[in-house]
Specification:
By secondary structure, the chain is an alpha+beta fold. It contains eight helices and four strands; from the N terminus they run E-H-E-E-E-H-H-H-H-H-H-H. The chain has a four-stranded mixed β-sheet with strand order 2-1-3-4, with helices on one face.
Length: 251
C-alpha cells in the first residue's frame, strides 16, 4: 500500500517521536483481565495503530462491567483514547482520527481508496469472522477475565451466543472449521504477499491480526496450522515493533 511504513521500521516516526497533542502522552482505555491480561480485540487494533504511527500512550485498564469509569466518553465500550482534550471512542473512529490528526506519520490506509477498502474489510471481519471465532474461544476467555467481570461477562456473551458458554465450548470444533473456511482466501493471499496490505503492514493487517491476538490471549486452542502462510504472517505481525504483541501474557 502506497505510503505504508516499511516492514523493518513499521510504525517508526519519520522525525522525532511524537507524544500526541501538545507534547503529551495519549491515554488508552482497554479491558483488563486476570493476571494483567489485556484481551480486548478492538483495543489491539488501536494499539497496533498507535505503534504504526509511532505514538506513545498510557494504558488505563478497566473492567468490562465498570461503565462509570468510561462514561466520560459518551459510550459503554473500549477502546477509548484521549489525546490532549480530544476524546475518541471506537477502534475504527480512532484509526481515522490518528490518520487525519497525524498525516505526517506512516499512513494506516494509504489514501482515500485504501481507507474505503479498510472500512469494508473492518465490517466484513466484524460481521463474518467475529461471530465464528467467539464460540471457539469464549469459554476459555471466561477463565481468564478479571473475577470482578464474571457475572457481567457471562450475561453479555451468553446473550450474544444465545447459548451458555459451556454449550458454545461443546460446538467449538464446528465453529473452528467454519472459521477456517472463511479465512482460507487469506492463506492464498499471504502465500503471494507478506502482509494483508502488500509489502508492508497497515490497518487491514491490524484488523485481521486483532482476532488472532484475541484468540492467542484467551485460549490455548490453536486456530492456525503450523507452517501455513497465515501462520508465517502472524509470526511477522508478532515480531513488529520489537515484539510488542508477542511479549504479552497468553493462554
Amino acid at each position: 500500500m502506497e505510503g505504508a511504513a516499511p516492514e523493518s521500521a513499521a510504525g517508526e516516526p519519520r522525525s522525532e517521536r511524537s507524544r500526541g497533542e501538545k507534547g503529551g502522552v495519549m491515554t488508552l482505555w482497554e479491558l483488563k483481565g486476570r493476571d494483567g491480561r489485556r484481551y480486548s480485540m478492538f483495543s489491539w487494533r488501536t494499539k497496533m495503530a498507535l505503534k504504526h504511527k509511532g505514538l506513545d500512550y498510557e494504558s488505563k485498564p478497566v473492567l468490562m462491567s465498570d461503565k462509570a469509569a468510561i462514561a466520560f466518553s459518551g459510550g459503554k465500550t473500549v477502546p477509548i483514547i484521549k489525546d490532549g482534550e480530544t476524546v475518541v471512542r471506537d477502534s475504527w473512529q480512532i484509526a481515522e482520527y490518528l490518520e487525519d490528526r497525524y498525516p505526517e506519520r506512516p499512513t494506516l490506509f494509504g489514501g482515500a481508496i485504501g481507507r474505503g477498502m479498510a472500512q469494508a474489510f473492518n465490517t466484513w471481519a466484524d460481521r463474518t469472522l467475529l461471530p465464528l471465532l467467539m464460540p471457539v474461544i469464549v469459554a476459555d476467555l471466561y477463565e481468564r477475565i478479571d473475577p470482578g467481570d464474571e457475572q457481567f461477562f457471562r450475561q453479555q456473551f451468553e446473550g450474544f451466543l444465545k447459548s451458555t458458554l459451556e454449550e458454545a465450548r461443546g460446538r467449538r470444533d464446528e465453529f473452528a472449521k467454519r472459521l477456517e473456511r472463511q479465512v482460507e482466501p487469506w492463506q492464498a493471499v499471504l502465500k503471494r504477499q507478506r502482509f494483508v496490505c502488500g509489502a508492508s503492514p497497515a490497518y487491514g493487517d491490524y484488523i485481521l491480526f486483532s482476532l488472532f491476538q484475541w484468540a492467542r490471549i484467551a485460549s490455548p486452542h490453536e486456530l492456525v496450522a503450523a507452517g501455513s502462510p497465515l501462520d508465517a504472517w502472524r509470526s511477522r505481525m508478532l515480531d513488529l515493533y520489537d515484539g510488542f504483541a508477542r511479549n504479552v501474557l497468553t493462554a
